[in-house]
Structure formats: C-alpha cells, structure tokens
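Q: I'm writing up a methods section and want to include an example of the input and output format. Could you take the sequence below and give the corresponding predicted structure tokens, formatted cleanly so I can copy it straight into the document?
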Amino acid sequence: MTIRRAIKTGLSTFTLALSLSLAVPALAQQGPVEGWGLEATDVVPDPAIVYGTLDNGMKYAIQRNDVPEGAASFRMHFDIGSFGEEDDEQGLAHFIEHMAFNGSTNVPEGEMLPLLERLGLSFGADTNAYTSFDETVYMLEAPNTNEETLETALMLLRETASELTFTPEAVNREREILVSERRVRDTADLRNFRDQFDFRIPDTRYVSRFPIGLDEVLRTAPAERLRGFYDRFYRPDNATLIVVGDFDVAAMEADIRERFSTWQPSGDAGTIPAIGTLDFDREAAFDSFVDPTISETVAIYQQRPYTDPADTVAERTRDQVETLGQIMFNRRITRIANRENSPILGGGVSFTSDDDLSDYSAISISTRDGAWAEGLAIAEQELRRALEYGFTQSELDYALTQVDSALRRGAEQAGARSNSQLASALVNAAEENDFLTTPQYRYDLFQQARPQLTLEAVNAAFREEWEVGNPLVRVTAKVLDGGTEAVAAAYGQSAQLAVAAPEDTAVGDFAYADWGTPGTVTSDTMIEDLGIRTVTFANNVRLNIKQTDFEPGRVRFNVAMDGGSFALDGMNTTAASIYLQLASAVGGLGQHSADELTELLAGQQVSTGIGAGTDTFNSGGVTTPDDLAMQMKVSAAFLTDLGLRPEADARFNATIDAIWGQLTSQPSQVFGLRSGEQVADSPYLAFPSREELGSVDRVALREAVLAAAASGAIEIGIVGDVDPDAAIAAVAQSFGALPERNAEFSAHDDKRELTFVDLSGEAVNDYTHTGQADQALIGSIWRTTDDTDYREAAGLGLLTGLLRLKALETLREELAATYSPLVSGSTSSDFDGYGTMSLAAVIDPAQADDVRSIITRLASELRDEPVSDDFLLRARQPVLESIRLSRENNGYWISVVADAQSEADRLDRVRQQIAVVESFTPADLQALAQRYLTPERRADTRILMAPTAQ
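A: Here is the clean output for your methods example:
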C-alpha cells in the first residue's frame, strides 16, 4: 500500500490572441459519454470503453483488452482522500485503506491475502492500494480470468465498498504498521516536499492534510472514528469501479450490476472542507530548504487562479501549443546541462495545477552540489531569454518532429497497452470526471491542428503562461550560507544581466550511416518449439530473433559484447561499470556529441549509451520496426566508437553527488548496497566508496571498451513486432559489417571463483545511515549457491517465497514491526557457488533485538518442520501465474533470446520451468532450508543512524 503524491499534471489554459478555437474544427460530433452523463463536447471518446452508472450512483467503466492474454486489472476508485479528514482524523483515510486488507463481513480477518494468494496474486505486486489528498484507489491484478478469479476479485471489492468491520482488535494491530510506514517514508525528500507546499501554497489543506497522517491520531483514534469516516465517504455515489482485461464485457457488466446494485449508503454523506485560498497578488518571495542528504535544485514558480475547462478540441489544441513550448525550453536546458563542466544536471519547465486551488508555471533545475546560484541564474536568464526573444523555427521543427513521432508511435502501438496501463488511465479519468480518447484520435487531431501550431502561437502561449503573478523562488541545497537572503540576492543579481537572442543550431549528417559491405549469413536455423530463429554472420556475430504479436509496433533488443566488469582490470570495476551506465550516453560518440545525436535522431525511438554486466558490455532497449536499422547502427557505434567525452565526467560526478546522500540516508538502501560484501570478498560485489566512484579514469575506461570491441564476441537478441528478414538486414548493415571477431565469449574461469566470508551467524555487521534517528534496519543474509542446478535454483526461489509469507505474517501482522519486510533471493550465473537469500526490516531501533530473534526463528521454522500444503500453494501459485503471464511478454522473451546461441543449454529451462516449480513438495523445500538457511551460512546486519548525523 502506498501514498501517492497528488500533484497531478493537468491542462493549464490560456486565451491565445490567435483564434485557435475557430481554426480547428472537430473530427466528429459526440454526445455525452453513455452512462457517465458527461457534457457533450466535440472530442470523440474511445468507443471501446463501456461507461455506466448504477441507480445508487456508482459509476463503472469496462474495457476489453488482451495484454496480457487471459488476465485482468481491477481498480476501485473512491473520491475521498486526506482532504476530507477532520483535525482528529489525520491519517484515517490511509488507515481505512489498510483495514480493507484486514477483514470484512464475509471475509474473516487474515483470510483476504491467503485467498488471493491461492488464486495466484501476490501481496504488493498484485494486491495494493494508495491514498492521496483527494482519492483512494484499490488495485487487483488478476493473473487469470477464469470464473473463480473474476468472481473473487469482484466479491472482495464489493466487501471493500461497504462491508469492512473495523473491530477494535484489528484496528489496534494495524496502528504500529501505519506508524512504521510513516517512519520509512520520513525522508529528506518528503520533508522537502512539505516545505515546498508550505512556501508555495501556504495555509491550505495541501499543507495540513498530508495523507500519511499524525502518529498521535494513528495510535489513538478509536475504531468507531474510522467507521464514521468510512460511512461518510465510502458511498456508491462517491465510487467508480474499473475493470480492464481479457473477458466478455457484457458478462462483466451484468456481474457488476448484480453485485453492486445492492450497495446503499450508511448514514449521511460527508462534506470536504474548502481546500483554502491563495493570494495571487503576493509579492515575489524566496525560500530555501537545507539538508545534507538532499539533491540540490532551484525552482521558479508563478501561480494564478485554478481553471478546469471542458475537454474540447480547442482546449486540446491549446494544450498541444503549450507542449511544444515545453519541449523547446527543456531542450535548451538539456544543451546547457550537456556542456563540459556544466553547473546543472538538467531540468525544465512545466505547466500544471494544484487541483481546485491554483494553476502554476514552474521551472525546476537540478544542479551540482554547491552550484545552486549558477543554476538559479541559468533558470532566470533562460526564462527571460524565451520571454523576450521567443523560440526559433529550427527549435519548433525539432519539437514538432518529436510530438508527431510520439503520437504516431502511440497510435501504432495502441495494441501494446497493458491492462494496468489502461486501468490507470481510467482511474485518472474518473478522478477528473473525464473520459478517454484513442491514440489514433489524438494523432489525427494533431495532424488536423498542425497548420495552427506556428512559432507565433507557441511564443504567445509561452509568454501568457508567465504573465500572471510574481515569481516564487526556491532552492534546496546541502549547505546554503545566508539562507533566503542569499537566494534573493542571487536572483536579483541575475535579473540585472542582459540576455542575448538564442542562436539557431545546424544539424549535420549522421557519421555512422554506412558501415561498409553488409555481412553475409553463414548459418540460419529455427528452434521450432520456442519460435527462435538463430543466425550467424560470416564475421561470427550471432543474431537471435523471435517474432511476436504481444506488443504491436514495438521491438525489444539486446546487444551483448564480450567484456564487462571482467575486462576492466586495473580499476574499480563496480565504480567503472556505474560510470558507464550513467555517463556513456552523455559522453556521446567519437564523431558526435550527445547534443548532436539528439538532433540527428529526432523523431526516432532509438536508445543511446551502453552498460556493463559482469562479463559483457551491453546495449539494449525498445525501438520500433521502422527504427530498428538506425538503432543497430547507433548501438554498434556506442560499442565500437564510444566517445566518453569530458562532459561525461562532470555529469557523472554531479549525479553521484546528488544521489549519494539519499543512498546513505535510507537504511534499506545501505543494506542493499552492502549485502554482497557480507558474503564474499570480491571486488565485483563490494560497493565502492564515494572516493572510488569519483576516481574513475574515463580515458582508461574508454580504452577498455574499445579494446574489447576490437575482437570480442557479439550476440544480439531481437524480439517483437518485427519481420525477421528485416532484422537480419538491419544487423547485416551494422554489426554484420564489422571485422571478423571471436566466435565464443571468454570463459573467465579464474574470475568466477570467489573467496567466501567465514560466516558464524553470531557476529553482527554494523553499518550506519544518515537519515532519521527512529529508523533502524535489522536483517540476515544467507549464502546459498549459484544457478548451475536449475531445479535447486527454482526451489530456492520458492523457499524465498515461503520466507516472505512468514515475514509478512510475523513481522508485519503479529509484531507490527515493519510496514513491508524486505525479502529477496538470487542465484548467480556469473560466480561459482554464489547466491543469497535475505530478510530485513526497517524498524524502530528499540525493536532491534526482538526482530533479530524473530528472523532467526523464521529460518529455524523452515528448517525444522515442512510447511503445510496450503502454505506452499500460497507461495507457489503466484509464481506459476507469473510464469504463465511472462510467456505473453516480450520483456521475458528478450532475456531468453538474448543468449539463445551462446547459452543454448539453458533453453531447456524455459521448457521445464512450470514442471520444475510444480514438482516441489513441502519436504523438498524443508531440505533446502536445512541445507542453506543455517547459522553457519548466515550474516546478520544492523544499521543505525550515524552519531554524526544527529
């Protein structure tokens, strides 16, 4: 369960001097959305969505979709969040969300999650909810659409609607879980968010009604107070049910009507107090937020009265004009960020709203540590440059190309939208009392409006967004001498400097268009049962292709080249790998900077940059059938002519500075970063220090990649909506044209052997964090093994699932020690004998000894006694359903296809996966626990706040 930020991007409106509303005719006329009674506009709703309203006032929306096939997404939206809380109810909207998982009239306490797990839904991934300022949403992801699962999902949402029981005992058990969640979320980012609200929209309910609530209310509010809030706001006329999936729509609608028509409100309806008012004539103001763990940013806001215009063609055209201005301004900021030694990391402009309170324009820019004043000057001067001189035609051409291609791809890839994506879009429509259109309609509307999207229109719109109100200027920094006075002074100094007109930039030719004579194919075979075509070129480059219809218009790819961390001898391999991942795209190519590539690739869905695995350098991502040939050329360029220009250093170090404080301030992050070193003494597993990260030799790193590129084996995987022959041609014209290279990847046998730490299970590895004093982490890590034995690896995965269920039932439900236990497991394919299983919890430091003993006890229980068949079913069924769904997912298949030739022996794992998982008995898993969850294989961890952080 999560608390979602409720600042949503909305349509900011303005009155253009140009008569856009008259210039853009509607594509068609449309009456009110059937069933929801919305006012008619000239915008055409998606005809595939069935809207309806029951006699009791509950709305619903249903849409058939088969991505993934045989699954469904359920959402129950309540038009109530923390805004509706009285002073003594702060946090109760979120509290009720928790209670929905704790018993109702027809589902005893503790039975809901087991019921769902038996059907294949796992807690967190498939059963979840969130509470915001103005909405509460319950979510179920049904992995199958058989009658039992659909009936159960509807039954549970019907129970949530009006049948929650709120027994005092259940309420009392949940209190500390909510406090634990508040504790985990109490970070510098949240405090910064609160401070920003207090500065920008003071004395409103946005400031006084954060959904997380107050500890004193969460710990003391009686059950009847929760019941009172529930009865006031959980009413049919305040709810919308959304179902998207692979089912018969008419049958689903009939079932909804039958189940929910009996729902009648209890008592009088609640009212939500006014959110507050703002002084839109407020003088210019300045603010600062200082915290040693915060990322440094500067922001300029201008606010104006809130508007909520009808959804019309004219309004959508105005919104499109705004979007073009945003793209152009943000492109300017990116160019500055990409300069060598730039003081900023990036940022841009946005036009958005605080619902029912204000519309506002904002420029937000991330800066290097200590460079906030330079960043503020850039923000102020670039805004003034845009307002005084406007944008250029070449900038508009770039923006139009980007928007056109994005909307076109959206239309072409409409069939790739998942159930959860469509359901979330319908939730937003319900929250805004709006409706949805098709991607094709949005593309057609853009084409129709294209003549009106002129430079004059865009410049006028951008200026109008900044005409109302005085600037509100805010800085976040790790250190800020002089406070708000220093911010005001820096802003004033910048405002005194003149700005020049922008310069147009010329775009040259792509230097990597011609790789020479295309490669020839020497081997072309088909793995019939898996549908994988394997190709080898004369230069030994391997290509594996699987054509699917899971994601129309999308192609996933992965290029692996021999090398990776194992090829980075003489440097801190982990630090160098992180550098490559974060900075290679910014560092560009040998013949093109990152900025030049952005212009050259405008309108194309092409990924840039590379990463480093343990034994390979990689390029991967998502492209389109039309862009695949260009993607292969760009990937080949990054792997064989990596630029790593000097600007990469500045961006990398600034990024690490920005996030380092966040990594070290959260105990869960510290635990994740320090887990490997507690089990094995290896440079490939130890996370580097800040100093090691800052000392990466960029030149040596580039040379190592280029050395690997000279002759290293290459294997490419391509999956999706692709013509296999076109994929072969695309690779032939790029990687296939490279000089002959090694056919096989390097074995690196000596580097795969680790020196394991001598574990006793008694000593505790102590670490510190720099966050809050009331946060501690207690955890244990067990050393398991690698994945050589597939059945054993699958069994360890199931054992991890059993440990997770036990942790939820004990640490969360019984002890209320933590909001969400941290459980993970992995078996390595890179290192001999290496694998881990871990359980940890972020807790109140006073509970440290109790939690450590419970973790030890849970492992002992799994060793000492086999679990029940039902307990195993609850752990296994979500795994089986996940496997089934994954077979309908290109993300799964690219991981299989990527090494289908070099790791051909592993393809049997795909064939055997379900049978292997189904083969385990409770006794089998007990035997694995006896082998691996033992004291002599366990490392214990304790993470407390560093004394210096106090």
